[in-house]
Amino acid sequence: MTAPSPAEAHRARLLVVTRRRATGLLVAVTVVFALSTAFFHQAHWLGWVQATAVASMVGGLADWFAVTALFRRPLGLPIPHTAIVVARKDRFAQTLGSFVQESFLTPDAVIARLRAAGAVDRVGAWLSDERHARELAARAAEGLASAADLLRDADVHEVLDSLVRQRLDQVALAPLAGRALERLTHDGRHEPVLDAALEAFSRYLHDNGADLHRRLGAQSPWWLPGPVSSHLVHRLADRTETLLAVMAQDRDHPLRQQLGAAIEKLAIQLQTDQSMRRRGEELKAEFLAQPTVRGLGADIWTDVKGELRDQAATPDSDLRQRLTRAIAHAGQRLATDPALSGAAERSLEALIRIFLTNFESELVGLVTGTIARWDAADTARRLELLLGPDLQYIRINGTVVGALAGLALHAAAVWA
């Protein structure tokens, strides 16, 4: 038996009060019957009182028996068809579940109630409130983080790795590079890039000339005299540095023009040359085979999960702020845009019809299953607390009506 709630405790006190009233009235008419019977020989008019009291007692006792028999056996006696709620609990649960579903949870009844309550407009007004939007955004962010934690990392890694490989396998690397290079060279868009590259190469030669001179000089032929080798290397480096600087400044330089033409030719070859296409696919396969690339999906998922947790836990995070703005904006549109609110209302009604039509047995099962899990005595107690006070007034009414009926019948007997 479950502990009584505050509401049940209040109904229990009310039941005690009404039961005492009904029982007290029955005791009173019993006393009247006893007195009228004892003194009947002294005053014959007491016969009217006696007849009234007898009928009142019969009415009160009959209603006491009926009310008590609903929930328990009167006086603990094994009388048939008593303790009805305890004996018929499961049948009562089935009947109540069907009644609730057929009378209250029909699609038309629920939809009519939602229309009368202005559910969509109220939802829009509630969402447009910034405080509510922040609360809902916080719950949504926590839900996203929890959903990410529920997923198995190995499954996500496999899916991400498969998606990356599938997408890359569908892309021909060489033609893609050729198209990108062609766009870069269109209308001279590559010239600023060449300027920067030539200037950077020229500065590199200038800054690292001594080291290059030493390395190139060490690789000179043995038969070449040292001073000659040193002079040639110095001249080569100096001329190359100067040439690169001039090419960087002069876009009409012949060598600069040849370099641009070679880049344009390379762009075309990358798109049309089958040998370059094969080489591009080989490079792509080598790239995908690298362990770092194979672990890319795992790294991405780990970063996403960590970022989701941080964003969900931080009140002023970008994710929660964006969700708050999106929720508030959606609420404002629901409250101010008749077309959108109408569409939302129709969608909600269609969803309710589908749900209530296809899950009516589950709704009945919700009521019947809940009551079926209750203990029979606990069920009787709950119902008695719910209906008992009114049933005690039935006892009072039965006592009073019995008295009136007894008086009327005695009057008819005397008149006859």
Question: How would you explain this protein's 3D organization?
Answer:
This protein is mostly helical. It folds into two domains: 6-87 and 374-415; 126-336, no CATH class. Helix content is 84%, strand content 0%. The protein has 20 helices and no strands. The chain has helices spanning 6-38, 46-71, 84-87, 89-103, 107-117, 119-128, 130-150, 153-169, 173-185, 191-207, 209-218, 226-249, 254-272, 274-288, 291-294, 296-313, 318-336, 338-358, 360-373, 376-415. Helix 4 (89-103) packs antiparallel against helix 19, helix 6 packs antiparallel against helix 17 and helix 11 packs across helix 12 (226-249). The protein is rod-shaped. Mean pLDDT is 79; it is low at 219-226.
Number of domains: 2
Structural class comes to: mainly alpha
Number of H- or I-type helical stretches: 20
Helical amount: over 70%
Give the overall form.
rod-shaped
Distance between the termini: 57 Å
Q: How would the blueprint of this fold be written?
A:
Layout: H1 6-38, H2 46-71, H3 84-87, H4 89-103, H5 107-117, H6 119-128, H7 130-150, H8 153-169, H9 173-185, H10 191-207, H11 209-218, H12 226-249, H13 254-272, H14 274-288, H15 291-294, H16 296-313, H17 318-336, H18 338-358, H19 360-373, H20 376-415
Helix pairs in contact: 1-2, 1-20, 2-20, 4-19, 5-18, 6-17, 7-16, 7-17, 8-16, 9-13, 10-12, 11-12, 17-18
